[in-house]
Amino acid sequence: MSHTGTTVVIGTSVAGVRTAQALRTEGYDGRVVLVGAEHEPPYDKPPLSKQFLAGTWEGSRLTLLAPAEAADSGIELRLGAAARRLDPAGHRVHLADGSELAYDTCVIATGAAARPSPWPAESGVHVLRSLADGAALRADLVRGGPVVVVGGGFVGAEVAATARALGCEVTVVDPLPVPMGRLLGPEVGAHFADLHRRHGVASRFGSGVEGVTGRSGRLRVTLTDGTVLPAATVVVGIGAVPNDRWLAGSGLLVDDGVVCDAYCRAVDAPDVYAAGDVARWYHPGRGTHLRVEHWTNAAEQAARVAHNIAHPDDPRPYAPVPYVWSDQYDWKIQIAGTPVGATRHTVIGGLAGATARGGALYTDDTGRLRAAVTVNWPRAQAVCRRLLTTHTPFATAVDQVKALASRGAAGP
User: Fold this and answer.
1) 410 pLDDT exceeds 60?
2) What region, left, alpha or beta, does residue 8 occupy, with left being phi > 0 and alpha being psi -120 to 50 degrees?
């Protein structure tokens, strides 16, 4: 099929870049324009809280798409040009520099922004979402002094691990009794609390933050129980919000992201698609709309969007098994499926100590495998991801993973 139109992709994180690249691999031969708000070439974000923050990787190593590579693929890069307004009826994107782009198809991949800190200290309080955020945080960490991390989720835990590796005294604060307890449940979450303790990170789980005052190097973090923690640096990792405010007035249905159908098309503009953190699409297997903030989903959804643009006569719904990974201290943590909403779980192997290698399998009232969390056991994770795609009964899944363990196949 020959394509003569123009596809404009808004957003240069992984969802935007992978959409542009996948359009070419799908045989799309129309014009492709990739628009990004930042001036830097597109870069990957998972290393921001790990290798880049630790100083072991330079920013150039994070590049997702170099200008020369884009040119070779026939992808036009428009960097430093944030989208300000979308006109679906006129098929135009208006940019912050006053220019506009006409399109036949538009892909919204503007991602999500870190939820801002609600505590207006003078300086020294960081969020982590961009290369500039990472550089600013690293500059403060290498100056030393105690670090308080607010939020025990993935970003908070990874920053805590990296700051500790840099020699900082670190305290993690989270209102939940255990880190990631809302996602994994209290029993499994307790192992993550022990992971922090084992690496010398102090924790104040079960306490919220009432306020942060002062400036970089001389901050005071007041907790809801009255405790005051001194800090040189504070990192706030309390979630993210979709970058969809620029779509106000576009007429698109926006409700915690761009609302899309099962094919990732905006429900009220068939020439507009969305991919990645900003997309809230109808998952046909789950029977509801979902918005997922993970790298794997962004890459997989981008590929599906590109297929549906390049092959409009063969549209395919997007119904993935959610998957995310995280590297914290000496643990590789992998999660497939959705543990939230599970009614019970079974732990196989061990989730404690430096030699932890095991997994927790979750189920619900359907009696099927719902999710799997593994630590340092990628082979079991691969098995569980396959079982999740086939809606395997929970008991069968438990037997298969136990058999894997008993065969001594717990190696990677």
Assistant:
1) no
2) beta
In the sheet that holds 218-223, the strands lie side by side as 209-215, 218-223, 228-231
Question: DSSP 3-state assignment of 29?
Answer: coil
Burial class (CB in 10 A: 0-12, 13-18, 19+), 72: exposed
User: Residue 71 — φ and ψ, nearest 5°?
Assistant: -60, -40
Q: What is the pLDDT of residue 348?
A: 95
Per-residue model confidence as pLDDT tens digits over 11-48: 999 999 999 999 999 999 999 999 999 999 999 999 99
Tell me if 108 sits within 8 A of 277, measured CB to CB.
Answer: no
CA angle 395, 286, 321 (to 5 degrees): 65
Q: Between 355 and 147, where is the model more confident? A: 147
Q: How far apart are CA 361 and CA 401, in angstroms?
A: 9
Q: How far is CA 362 from CA 73, 184, 292, 384, in A?
A: 43, 9, 19, 11
How far apart are alpha carbons 104 and 91 in whole angstroms?
A: 7
Token pair for 351? 């989730």
pLDDT at 319: 95
DSSP state, 316? -
Distance CA 69, CA 80 (A): 18
Phi, psi of 114 (to 5 degrees): -60, 135
Place of tokens 């991602």: 111
Q: What is the dihedral of CA 202, 204, 210, 212, to 10 degrees?
A: 10
pLDDT of amino acid 185: 86
CA 53 to each of CA 86, 111, 136, 167, 372: distance values in angstroms, whole numbers, following the listed order: 35, 21, 9, 13, 29
Question: Which string of b and e fits 217-251 if b means at least 16 CB within 10 Å?
Answer: eebebebeeeeebebbbbbbbbebbbbbebbeebe
Structure tokens at 409: 């196949």
